[in-house]
Amino acid sequence: MKSLLSIRQLSPATSENTGSHTPSVAEYFNYSGTEGELSGGARRITITTPQGGFYVWTKRVGNNPAMKLLLLHGGPGGTHEAFECFDSYLPKAGIEYYYYDQLGSHYSDKPDDNSLWNIDRFVEEVEQVRQALHLDKNNFYLLGHSWGGILATEYALKYQHHLKGLIISNMMSSVPAYNQYADEVLGPQMPAEVLVEIKQIEAENDFTNPRYMELLLPHFYTKHALRMPMEQWPDPVLRMFDHMNQTVYVQMQGPSEFGIRGNASLLHWDRSRDLPNIEVPALTIGGQHDTMDPKHMEWMATQFPNGRYLHCPEGSHMAFYDDQKTYFNGMVNFMKDVDR
């Protein structure tokens, strides 16, 4: 998704598993003796890449030796800000969690080198972040939303021996299947004349045309991205879109807001056949009104040897806002079930 500048203008330490123990409030917020004590949990981590070393930003919230959740934001090129609503639910559940801006995003370094924006390098970045945060198979849960779900899937296929649990939020296992869903299901839900105009703008590669967002806002964004009137969109979501790195986004996702198109590097990504190889407990989450096919995400759960599906009947692509209680109740229950 694009920056919301135009939208606003148009819109009115490693520990042994301690089981299912839930820390007290004092224990949960005790950072004494940790690297995050001085900074309130914020930390820059040095990562190495084929183009040298860079910093990525993380922030720890809470303290639970058995449940540590690393959050992979969407985009690509999005930011941790969209996850800020997790503050309303995870502390009271006693779950330790980590905000994290991927390389190229918001608080992290933003190198001007397009060779860095590929799946394999991002996977190695996540692994370096895991090592720096001392997460391991006794406590490490990984949640990826949207593009983050692609990244989490790829990470699990290579490094699942470090994972305790995997959560794929609002992402299908196949970009071609996603594009087909957009064409055959989401598109026909629009008024015919609106869809024709959107397709014409895309065919002419006229993505900066203000008319493009004028059409998408009422007919796509507020129906499938976040089902609230634009003037009610939460502040973290608005800030996330404002801070989106469009260079990373367009290279990997493409300029279209209606599927992954053109020369996008993710165009042919498909891991559907590989899901049975992920043996750790896995939860897929889908919304009834999602940009992604909820039936496909339900099917994904059947492909994991230890899979579960959480359906958000009122939810869209950002179901952690528009079907919040369903989303967080189901996610927390999954993590606590794994922790038993």
Automatic annotation (TrEMBL):
Residues 1-23 have a biased composition (Polar residues). It comes from the Bacteria. Belongs to the peptidase S33 family. Keywords: Hydrolase. InterPro entries: AB_hydrolase_1, AB_hydrolase_fold, AB_hydrolase_sf, Peptidase_S33, Pro_imino_pep. The keyword Hydrolase applies. GO terms for molecular function: hydrolase activity. The keyword Transmembrane helix does not apply. Gene3D superfamilies: alpha/beta hydrolase. Residues 1-24 are annotated as: Disordered. This is Proline iminopeptidase-family hydrolase. Pfam families: Abhydrolase_1. Residues 69-323 form the AB hydrolase-1 domain.
